[in-house]
Design goal:
The protein is an alpha/beta fold and 526 residues long. It has one domain: FAD/NAD(P)-binding domain (3-Layer(bba) Sandwich), CATH 3.50.50. The protein is built from 19 helices and 24 strands. Strands 3-2-1-7-24 form a 5-stranded parallel β-sheet, covered by helices on one side. Strands 9-18-10-11-14 form a 5-stranded parallel β-sheet. α1 runs parallel beside α10, α10 runs parallel beside α13 and α14 packs antiparallel against α15. Keywords: Endoplasmic reticulum, FAD, Flavoprotein, Membrane, Monooxygenase, NADP, Oxidoreductase, Transmembrane, Transmembrane helix. Belongs to the FMO family. InterPro entries: FAD/NAD-bd_sf, Flavin_mOase, Flavin_mOase-like, Flavin_mOase_1, FMO-like. It is a single-pass membrane protein.
Amino acid sequence: TRMRVAVVGAGVSGLTATKCCLEEGLEPTCFEQSQDIGGVWRYTEHIEAGRPSLYPSVISNTSKEMSAFSDFPYPEDFPVFLPNAKFLDYLRRYAEHFGLREHIKCGTTVISIRKHPDFATTGQWDVVTEADGKQTSHVFDAVMVCSGNFSEPFLPLHCFPGIEKFQGQYFHSRQYKHPDMFQGKRVLVVGMGNSGVDIAVEASRVATKVTISTGRGAWLLSRVFDHGYPWDMVFNTRLRSLIRNSLPGPLSRALINYRVNQRFNHENYGLQPEKRYFLVPVLNDDLPSYIVTGRITIKPGVKEFKNNSVIFHNCPEEEPVDIVVFCTGYNVSFPFLEEADVKVENKYASLYKYVFPTHLQRPTLAVIGMIKTLGAMMPVTEMQARWVTRVLKGRKANTSSPVYQNIVRTGCVLFGLSFDEVLKTEWLAYMDELATFIGAKPRVLGLLFRDPWLALTIFFGPCTPYQYRLGGPGHWEGARQAILTQWDRTLKPTRTRVPTSSSSLCPSLLTVMGFLLLLTALIFGF
């Protein structure tokens, strides 16, 4: 009989986990508590139903080519950065194309997941679900948790003296629905992550005044990068990754900081991070112009709340406030699991390679998507799911390695789960590591002799997910063509007016690079 796998959640992670199970001949059952797939990307439908939204700007922060599933490119007429409706359309096409719908049970909530009595020998799990008020018990051979990290808001009100006296309105960003609620109000946004900046920008269009309070500051990136190309297609290349990882850490960080400050000096805009090395960037195209035009003001951390105002650190005067939005993030939580199965302390979880709990006797529980990297999440969750399903199938994996066995035996965690720490692991390096576990990492040097143009494109161009389908398990025949046409699909939606003297769609980067640079890179890289 085929191994039965429970997949919790039918968002991005759950869909690709279900698909990877089918690829490996496993039998997945995906439980989704809402009435349709898509998770947090069902923005418009959440609003219509009066439920909170988690993505106020509802525009993806990563480009379509970098965030595509590795064997399912976006249609070429889709915009470069996707509105939520297009993104949700893509997810539905993906589900239909690979026949995932029949394996998804919508309107079904996972109540509890507990070890089966004979877990030590079988690795099985008892799963209790609820649908239409009726609970059902199941036994599964493995569980893939794909429920995301936006379930439990983190709202440390004890860190804000005087909040109990504040007579205005305050809430966590998870409760934000629509900017109309800020009409004519004085708004304070506490925290400067992506959600905080997006909410502030939207609020400034209708509010009387908008202030962002940040104790740490943040580096700001624009979706539109060098020569108008998407930021991640410029930043996440094998050549740039090689350079960043080859240089001494301080020098590499200094170069990145210099590059980020070329667009605008962060210190002059009140954004300079307390820690000056490049670590936690925020993606937003509008904030600098909104600051320079006075629509948004940046202030230090909150010192104290008064009845109708706030006092900031190092700012003696009170500032009137009507509404406070706390963009303070989320706790890592798994309410349906026992605490002993996934240990979470101070926003850390004991997960090997951010996936497998390190203390279980059998690697039959995996957490997908609980990682934040400077790059697209969809390919990362897909690669995690590909690795997990290979492990479950008993094929080439890394959970039998001495390193992993030592972690299980001693309880010493090789990689904890903390968003700040995870960001120190490069997107491309992490993808390559997991791809190596399953034998899907592209061999650039070998390709150089067999298919030099493809090798050059892979090394100098963006590391699109299709690279991980060129060989190994899950090989896709269309991978080579998808790589060679990735710039065509990127530029097609924007080149709606092409002068007669237009240049080729393919950026000149690949054609200008000489073999001297290639050989130099190969010498140092291989």
